[in-house]
Each structure stands twice: as structure tokens, then as C-alpha cells.
Amino acid sequence: MDVISSYLDTLFAQHPDTSRMREARTQVHALMERAYREERASGRSEHEAAAQAISRYGDLEAIAPRLGIVEELTRQHPVAAHSDAGPRAAVDTSADTQPIDSGSLDLPPPSPRILPEPPPEPSPEPALVPPPPASGLLPVTIEEARTYAEDARVAQRLLTAAVVLFVLSPIALLTLPALSALPGFPLTESVSSLIGLTVLAAVVFAGVALILRRNRVLHPHRRLIEGRFEEDPTVTSWARGIREDADGRRVRALVIAVGCWILSPIPTLAGGLLIGADGPWPSELAGIGVPGTLLLVALGLGIFLPAAWAVGPAETLEDVHDPHADDDTPDPPVIRVAKAALWPLTLATYLAWSFLGDSWGVSWLVWPLAGIVYWALSSVADAWKGRSPR
């Protein structure tokens, strides 16, 4: 497989190109291919199987004894060899064994033979242990990345539900007062408006609760989200794989969602055309098509957002981050919730004010006001990040 071959090329490029190392590369490639086939048989995707095979046999120092290349690696990273004793002169015991009268010889008194002292044993040194990363950050592991991706998928579903609730929240407020103007409707306009406001507040509260739940799901992975980790080639390859696997579904979901968004103005336009002096609907139903527009917008978001879950984890694990950059520091949770709810509430206010109050001439002012509020929230968030510890 190309991913495995590319990884092995990078792994063995830093070692001498000897026949033994080439043979070792062939053996490692065979081991990874076998592990890759086993993972594929167990149901994993192509990229997940490759990442698992690399994770199992990608540490060359760990499998060096099995490959018989410890000497080659030691030669590249020399480590003092242990010795139990220094060199000693050989003693010849094959001399003549006949007794010699030493008294008849004028010899100086014998001096003790001094043997060389054995060299001191070197202190144990870690052999073939890779140095710590220069950044001082802990590397990300494949298990940690896999857990983060699973939690990111759950968080994306929670975000989707929250956004859909925000978009649908004003439907009751728009529909009930319009229907209350019809003869025979059991609710008065005041009661209908009160019910609509209550439903709006309850739905927005549910959406905010989902956003807070999403933040709790992602909180254990804050180190990865903020980029405070050392990249790992295996994890980067795996992250690229999950993005590629999800690209097809994401593109199809985007096409369907764009279709829903293009069609979304039709209910509102149809309501305006069918209501009036010449229309079949009574004028009391002005604005009744707006809920249909919101339903189509929410449908498109509900289709697209879950299919795009892999983009976030892939960008987090693939990109090079600066842990000291301002952009990597998240906004406070309250600011994030306020930003998420601002534009749906602005849309609901604009539509309710325009249709219920027939104030198209001034209702557009909610948009620049919302822009000012958003700018103020961003300024508060920037100030908070400026005071946060680095």
C-alpha cells in the first residue's frame, strides 16, 4: 500500500543503505502488509487498517532484535560497550618445568607484576531512545486521536441539533398569531403570542443546553483542539484518511442541503402571492409561508452538518499549530453560546417584526444592530484571550 511504503521510505531514509537494512525493510513491509490485511478483514477502513499496521510495527528500535539489526542501529548511534574486565597479558604455562637453582643466579629481587587496571564500567545509557521533541510538547497517539474523532462526531450531532432548534424556534411565534386571526380559531392573538414566545424561549434553552453539552464532550480533548501536541506521521496519515473517507458523503450532503436552501424562499414568496385582494388566501395569513422557509433551511442544515464531522478532527490533527497563538485560544463558553444563538434570534426577530407588525421599512435595522452585538462579543472574547495565561 502506498501509505505503508511511503512511511517505510521515510523511516529507513535516516539509516545506512546496507544490504542488512534493505532486508530488514522488506521484512517490516511484509509484517505491515499482513497486519493491514488482518485489520481490513476485521472491518476497518483502508486508512484505519494502514494506520493500525504502522502503529504496530512502525517503531524500528522496538523490533530491532527481531530483525537482527541492533548492530546496525548501534553503529549509527554508538553506545559504550560494557566490559567485565580490561585486557590482561596472557600467561605462558608451557615453559620448561625443570627446577632452577635461583641461588646460583645473580638476579634482582622480583618485583610484583603490575597488571593494567580494568576500565571502569560506564554508567548505563539509554540506547536507541529517540530524543524528546524540540517543541517540548507531548506527541499525539493513534488511540488518543481515535477517541477524539469519536467524541467529535458526537459533538457534531449535538451542534446540528442545537442549530436546527435555533432555526425552528420562532415557528410557533410566527404561525399561531397568524392563525388566531382566522374565524373559528380557538386562541386569541394575545394567547397565541404568549404561547409562541414560551415555545421560542423553551426551544432556545434546549439549543443552549445542547451547546453546553457539546463543550463538555470536547473538553477532555482541549490539548488537541488548541494544538498543544507534537505531530506524529501515523496520526497525520490516519486523520487524512478519515477526511478522505468522509468526503464523498459530505459532498452529497452539501448538494442536497444547497438544494434545500435554494428552494427555501419559495414558501415565503408563495404566501405573499397567494394572499391579497386577488389571492385565494385571506390577508390574515400574511407571513404564513415563513415557517416553511425555516423548515427548509433547518432541513438543509440537518443534512449537511452531520456529514461534515470529519473536517474538524482532520484539520486539528493535520495542521501545524502554534500553541501560543491567539487564534488557538477558544472563546469563553458564554461568548460561544451567545454567538451561536445571535443570528437565528436575529432572523426570528426580523421576520416576526416584519410580518406581524408590517414594519418592513424599519425592521431591517435589526441586522446592523446584530452586527454591532457580534462585534462587541468578539471584542470581549479577544480581551479575555489577551488576559488568559499563555
Report the strand count: 0
Strand content: under 5%
Structural class by sheet pairing and helices: mainly alpha
Figure out the total of helices. 16
Principal-axis shape = elongated
The major pleated sheet works out as: none
Question: What Rg is obtained from the alpha carbons, in whole angstroms?
Answer: 37 Å
Average pLDDT, all residues = 74
Order of helices and strands: HHHHHHHHHHHHHHHH
Describe the structure.
Keywords: Membrane, Transmembrane, Transmembrane helix. The chain crosses the membrane at residues 158-179, 191-212, 253-276, 288-312, 333-353, 365-384. Residues 81-135 are annotated as: Disordered. Residues 107-134 have a biased composition (Pro residues). With 390 residues, this protein is mostly helical. Among the domains are: 2-76; 142-322, no CATH class. Helix content is 63%, strand content 0%. The protein has helices at 2-12, 19-41, 46-57, 64-67, 70-76, 142-168, 171-180, 189-218, 222-225, 233-263, 265-274, 290-307, 311-318, 333-357, 360-363, 366-387. Helix 10 (233-263) packs antiparallel against helix 12 (290-307) and helix 10 packs antiparallel against helix 13. The protein is elongated. It starts with a helix and ends with a helix. 24% of the residues are buried.
